[in-house]
Write a structure and sequence with these properties.
Beta-lactamase, 288 residues, globular, four-stranded antiparallel β-sheet
Length: 288
């Protein structure tokens, strides 16, 4: 099943693998050729900025759902441009990198381009890299990555996977980036991914939504039954991969429902009910 923006969390994981290998660094300017000119202010954009949606690019907002939003550059990128990454990398800055939070798909299209370059270039090399470094070690066998016409991964929204494979992905984060005794993600990457981004009112970390911090979104979710330490991958029509470290839980829900009102997809209640049910079973087991 297509899981829309939950794909961003997989791109975050692949980025982490490249950081572990030394091919990318979080806090250094990203190696985008178009940004290397003398005095180009985009040269200050880092991998961390892209993962947290604080790069400042003037490409619009991907949380907007209105008729006017259809004309924003980010939607031209997604639906009209054959080379999405080249377009995203061609726009100027709206704000100073690192100063403002603005969720948009262009950030993760650019990250996908960085992954493509590090993997070798052709789409086949990206698929090989993702399979060898992430999907196969986790046992994710039913995954499809989609690409634009230029061969760049559409890493903002277009990955398809089964619920079981998404659960395997969530388990990687529940187990601190290790599977079968092998470290896949850099040490500390899971904590970094769940750490709150300043001024992200929805509660967003680095490629994952998060209940840590004091954002409006995090507090709202906690008030409606989600644990404080929960963080999650999220798709736009109700797809969730929720990781709850304190409960040793991964909860996958691949539903189809609108985003508003906020609780219409029932995920907050689902998480609360699963936590309560597993706690009850644990108490019964201890009693037995």
């Amino acid at each position: 099943m297509a899981t829309a923006s939950a794909t961003k969390s997989v791109i975050s994981a692949l980025t982490g693998i490249l950081v572990r290998k030394g091919a990318l660094t979080l806090d250094q300017p990203v190696p985008i050729v178009a940004w290397q000119g003398t005095g180009d202010p985009r040269h200050a954009i880092t991998v961390d900025h892209l993962l947290r949606h604080t790069a400042g690019l003037a490409i619009g907002n991907s949380l907007e759902a209105s008729l006017g939003a259809a004309f924003e550059p980010v939607n031209r990128m997604k639906f009209m441009e054959s080379d999405m990454a080249a377009y995203a990398e061609s726009v100027g800055l709206a704000t100073t990198p690192g100063s403002t939070w603005n969720y948009n798909d262009g950030n993760f299209i650019i990250l996908s381009h960085l992954i493509r370059n590090a993997a070798g270039g052709p789409a086949a090399d990206v698929i090989r890299f993702a399979r060898e470094e992430l999907f196969e070690p986790l046992g994710m066998r039913n995954v499809t990555l989609e690409f634009d016409a230029s061969g760049n991964p559409e890493g903002s929204t277009q990955m398809l996977a089964t619920a079981r494979d998404w659960a395997r992905f969530g388990m990687l984060y529940l187990n601190d980036g290790v599977v079968g005794g092998k470290r896949i993600l850099p040490e500390g990457w899971v904590k970094y991914s769940a750490s709150a981004t300043p001024n992200a009112w929805v509660g967003y970390g680095a490629g994952f939504w998060t209940n840590l911090g004091d954002s409006f979104g995090a507090n709202y979710r906690i008030e409606h039954g989600m644990p404080r330490d929960a963080f999650f991958a999220k798709g736009t029509i109700g797809q969730y991969v929720v990781i709850v470290p304190s409960e040793r839980l991964v909860i996958v829900r691949l539903g189809r429902s609108p985003n508003w009102p906020p609780e219409v997809d029932g995920v907050f209640g689902l998480v609360s009910d699963v936590v309560a049910a597993t706690n009850s079973k644990a108490k019964l087991a201890v009693g037995d």
